[in-house]
Design goal:
Helix content: under 10%
Order of helices and strands: EHEEEEHEEEE
Distance between the termini: 45 Å
Number of strands: 9
Largest sheet: 7 strands, antiparallel
Radius of gyration: 20 Å
């Protein structure tokens, strides 16, 4: 008898990275240069961010007169992404590092259109680039700023803004990054 297969336990805390990438030619095989040319926003995002979800509508098929069992299938699938909260310096000038995320997403009120890109399993504070062979999740999306409020009114409050995210294309999960 063979030993059971068990996944390796890996802690996830601090090992999630976020980019906004304007253009990816093939979301099923993004190139490292496309991602590395994007905006690395891991250090602007709060750690409790949720990512993209895919929710298939499970349907029950009609039963035929000659059948006694019913079966299920999948109907329409809804792809969505949770709102994203990003930190910023509300008093910084346009182009200042403290306004990097704000400048990109607010965009004079027009919002952002491109790709939200997540990478799991890599420390967010060590490097801001990906390499050939890394794996990422690509979410074609539009973002709009919907509020600019501190995270709390207490002494732990940080200046932040919240973005609504609309998924505009197929979510590509855990795809391999290719070298350019």
């Amino acid at each position: 008898m063979a030993a059971p297969i068990k996944p390796q336990k890996q802690t996830a805390y601090g090992k999630r990275r976020l980019w906004l990438v304007d253009t990816i030619a093939d979301t099923g095989a993004p190139e490292d240069t496309e991602i590395n040319d994007g905006a690395y926003l891991t250090c602007f995002a709060l750690s409790d961010q949720a990512g993209a979800t895919t929710t298939p509508n499970k349907i029950t098929l009609p039963v035929l007169l000659c059948e006694t069992d019913s079966y299920e299938d999948f109907g329409t699938t809804a792809n969505s992404h949770a709102d994203i909260t990003l930190l910023y310096d509300p008093q910084a000038d346009v182009g200042d590092p403290g306004k990097t995320a704000w400048d990109l997403v607010y965009n004079d009120g027009d919002g952002y259109a491109g790709n939200v890109l997540w990478q799991l399993g890599e420390a967010g504070d060590e490097d801001d680039s990906v390499a050939d062979g890394d794996r990422v999740t690509v979410v074609p999306a539009k973002l709009k700023v919907i509020s600019e409020e501190p995270t709390s009114t207490g002494e732990d409050g940080l200046f932040a803004f919240q973005c609504s995210v609309a998924v505009t294309g197929k979510i590509r999960r855990n795809v391999e990054v290719t070298g350019s």
